[in-house]
Amino acid sequence: MEKEKNRKFMFCTSWKMNFGVSEGIEYARKLIRFIDSGIENIDKLEIFIFPDFLSLYPVSEITRNTGLKIGAQDCFWEDSGAFTGEVSPLFLKELGCRYVIVGHPERVIQLKEDNKMINRKIKAVLKNNMNPLLLVYQRKEFENPEQAFKIINEELLLKIGSINPSDINRVIIVFEPLWAIGTGRATSAEHISEVALKLRELLDNEFGQGTGQKQQLMYGGGVTLENIDEIINVESIDGIGMGRAAVDFNVFERAIARILGCKKF
Q1: CA-to-CA distance for 47 and 13, rounded, in angstroms?
Q2: Does the annotation count 176 as an active-site position?
Q3: pTM higher than 0.70, yes or no?
Q4: What are the domain boundaries of the chain?
Q5: What is the pLDDT of residues 13-67, one digit of tens each?
Q6: The one catalytic residue among 46, 113, 155, 176
Q7: Top-level CATH class of 9-260?
């Protein structure tokens, strides 16, 4: 099962909890200048960032009507109410967010989010006309790829259970090997391709023929300038998420240039 052709390649980074507000604003301003400087083929990329919540409002103000899109690192599953410390998906939409990360393994492991919570968040994001970036991750390396596929598929089905079939293609699925996050050591291009193809087959089986081809699948985990060229050329993925390495603005800028220099473009 191949992916659908002729859609924008997606490239993003999450700042996690690495910048103060002034640092975040400066990063965003530099990135906007770079994106809007007339670079060839830049319109073939969907570039977006996930600021921390303190930076999200000022960054949303300076990204309006630019080529840079924004998203949120998380949200709650209700639009309003007595939920101290949580962030409403409705209010994120009002800020201009296009995307929301859902089910990041750091939240699952450190904050004990479960599949039921993740499923409710996906539905809340979709209800507010944003796109969830759903993290589907491989907890450890397996010698037998089929064992890895089985566990990944089971995890995905638990997270997307009872989602309306008409909405499933609005969910952007991000495959991350848990053992690669923050290490600078991505899994092999062959394994990324195999997982993406298996995920597309699963979606066809669960939601109807053709669903997998339409699904946007990304890869994240250990992406650096040293391995990004190999990952870009995996035909079965639609985008890349760059984590720790992209805290350095110059690395993120160079990564964009590397993507645009790829034969895909």
Answers
A1: 9
A2: yes
A3: yes
A4: 9-260
A5: 999 999 999 999 999 999 999 999 989 999 999 999 999 999 999 999 999 999 9
A6: 176
A7: alpha beta
